[in-house]
C-alpha cells in the first residue's frame, strides 16, 4: 500500500460523497477478496482484514469460533489451540489468527482495485436510489450531457452525480434539445437492477401532462378538480377529461385559468402541443360528444355490449370531428375508452356509406385502461 493512502481515502470520500468508515469497509473487503484469490483460500473461510487508515498497511486474519469438539476446521478451533493465540479465549468466543503473508503489500493489487471500484459504484447507485425512489412519478429536472443510440443522457441529483436516460421512445419527435440544456422530465422508473442508468425519464408519457397540470392548477393539486383520463399523441395534441368534486365548480374553467394562462403555461412547457380540456361525464353519450370537441355532434348512440358509440355529425362538421389524419377522433376514442363510428347526417357519407371507425386503444393496448385516468396525486405524494 502507498504511503499516501490517507490522502487518497480523503479524496475518494470527497469525490464520491461516501463516509470514511464506509469506504474503509469497502477497502478491507477488497483486500480480503484479493487474499483469497491469490493464495487459494476457500471462499467459505472467514477472513478479516484490518487496515491502518494512515499508512495503508493491511493485516490479514483467519477468524475461528472456539468449540469443545472441532467439526469444521475451516471455521472452528479447539480451546487449547485458541488459548495459545489468545490466553483469555473461552468456549463460544472467537479468535483471530494472523496469516498476513510477508509480501502481501505487493500482491492482489489489481483484484483489490477491481473490488474497490465495484463497491464504490454500488454505493453510489444505492445513494442515487435512496435520493430518487420517493420521487418516482414526479417531475424532475436535468441537464443534457450527451446522446447515444439509446437516447439522451441527463445529469441529475445533488451535485449532478446521478445519470438519467431519456430513451428515444420516451422523447417527443418534434422536440430538439441541445447539449447543456436544462429540461423538465417525468421520472418514469427508478430501477436498482439495471446495469446501465437506473433512472429512466420521459417527456412523451401522458402522465407528464398530468403532473404539469397538477403543478399549474391549484384545484387539481388540492383535489377539488380530478383528472379522469388523458389521451395523448406527444408533440401534437392531448385531450384531458376533468371533473369537479363540487357541482358548483367549473372544472374546465379552473384548468384553463384567467385568459387561458394556466393551460398556456402547460402548452409552453410542451413546446406548443395543443391541449383540449374536456368535461368528464358519467353518461357515455355526453362524454363521447364532448370528447369530439371542437366538432358539433347531433347524436350519439351507444352499444354497451360492444362498447361502440355511433356518432352523427353535420356534414360540414365531419372533417372537424375526424381531424387531420383522424387525430381528433382517435384521441376521443382513447380518452373515452369507446369504439367510435362517425358519419355525417346527410347524403355525404364516408367510404361509400361505411362510417369512419376509431378504436379505443389506450397506451397499454387495454381499451378499459384508456378511460381509467386514476385520481390526481399531489406532487411529491
Describe the protein:
By secondary structure, this protein is of the alpha+beta class. It has 3 domains: 5-129, 2-Layer Sandwich (N Utilization Substance Protein A, Chain:P, domain 4), CATH 3.30.1480.10; 136-202, OB fold (Dihydrolipoamide Acetyltransferase, E2P) (Beta Barrel); 207-370, K homology (KH) domain (GMP Synthetase, Chain A, domain 3), CATH 3.30.300.20. Helices cover 31% and strands 27% of the residues. The chain has 12 helices and 16 strands. It has a 5-stranded mixed barrel. Strands 1, 2, 3 and 4 form a 4-stranded mixed beta sheet that branches. A hairpin with a 2-residue loop joins strand 5 (139-148) and strand 6. Helix 2 (20-38) packs antiparallel against helix 4, helix 5 (206-216) packs across helix 8 (261-269) and helix 9 (284-291) packs antiparallel against helix 11 (327-336). It is elongated and about 105 Å long.
Runs with pLDDT <50, length 5+? 349-355, 360-381
Helix content: 25-40%
Largest sheet: 5 strands, mixed, barrel
The radius of gyration computed from the alpha-carbon positions, rounded to a whole number of angstroms, is: 32 Å
- Strand order of the main beta sheet, please? 5-6-7-9-8
Instruction: Tell me the number of strands.
Output: 16
The tally of domains stands at 3
